[in-house]
Each structure stands twice: as C-alpha cells, then as structure tokens.
Write a structure and sequence with these properties.
With about 160 residues, the protein is α+β, with helices and mostly antiparallel strands. It is built from 4 helices and 7 strands, in the order βββαβαββααβ.
C-alpha cells in the first residue's frame, strides 16, 4: 500500500473499556465500533436481567460511543448482533426499535454457542457513517480537525491516538 493511512482510535468513559481493544476506530467514511457486551460502564459488571435488559445495555453502550464521536444513532449504517439463543430475536427487536428514530440500519444476526462473558446473552457491534470521510491526511488537515472539535468533545477524546 502506498501513501499514508489516517485512523482515529477513541474511547469514552461512558461505555466499557477493554485493555486490548479500542471502542471505536474512524477510518475512511466509517467509524467501526467494537462489539459491546451488556456491561454497565460504571460498575464494569454484566447487568442483571434477561435478554431485553441486556440488549438495552449493549445499545446504550453503543449510543454512548456514537455520541462521544459527535454522531447520533441515525448515523449507524450496520449492526451485527450475536445471540446465544436465536429465538430471543423478537425480544431484542422490541428494544432495538427504540434506539433508531429515522430508519433502521442494515443488520446481521448470528446465533453463537458462546460469548466472552458466560452469562451474557448477546453482544452487538456497529458501523457509523462519517459521510465526509477521512481525507488522505497531512498535518495541516489534522490541525484543522482539532480546531473544529468543541472543547467537550476534545476532552472526551483524551484517549485519541492519531496515526499518519
């Protein structure tokens, strides 16, 4: 590959962090969000309840990440749902529908035998459209981007890594 690649890796305190993964990576026209388990970001523990409660927590974590990078849930273009019990899909759909106002993103649902946490019933990841894309990159562009970020967003991006 020739040229420079620009990607932004970011974390927010409002969703669970993982020591070996970034919550979101922006590259080209998309932000890829790491799969979210139904973990409460404050306690770091799996939330109590059934699949509806767990789906709600996964989607709350995704929403927190989406908002931390200056987007809204309607910017989500793709969702992948990994379910331990495929018959739970109707319960998941009931919760899922409350998180999208204008349209539903494309979606893949996969039944899985196991998830990273034993009592987790599902895991969800997402892709956000950046619309404007990530330019091919130079220091002038990067300087411009930092100047455009509101102070609160800049503070939320304190874990930002920049690669050029």
């Amino acid at each position: 590959m020739s040229g420079k690649i620009i990607k932004f890796s970011r974390n927010t305190e409002n969703a669970p962090k993982n020591s070996v993964s970034t919550q979101t990576v922006a590259f080209s026209h998309y932000n890829n969000i790491s799969a979210q388990l139904p973990i409460d970001p404050k306690s770091g523990r799996l939330i109590a309840g059934g699949v509806k409660e767990q789906a709600g927590q996964c989607l709350k974590n995704i929403k927190a990440i989406v908002e931390s990078v200056g987007h809204v849930m309607d910017d989500v273009v793709k969702i992948n749902i990994f379910l331990k019990n495929i018959s739970d899909i109707d319960a998941v759909d009931a919760v899922y529908a409350t998180f999208f106002q204008s349209y539903f993103p494309t979606r893949t649902i996969v039944a899985v035998a196991a998830l990273p946490m034993y009592d987790a019933l599902l895991q969800i990841d997402a892709v956000i459209s950046n619309g404007e894309g990530t330019p091919s990159g130079d220091s002038a562009w990067c300087s411009y981007v930092w100047q455009q970020l509101p102070g609160t967003v800049w503070q939320q991006l304190s874990g930002t890594e920049f690669y050029a």
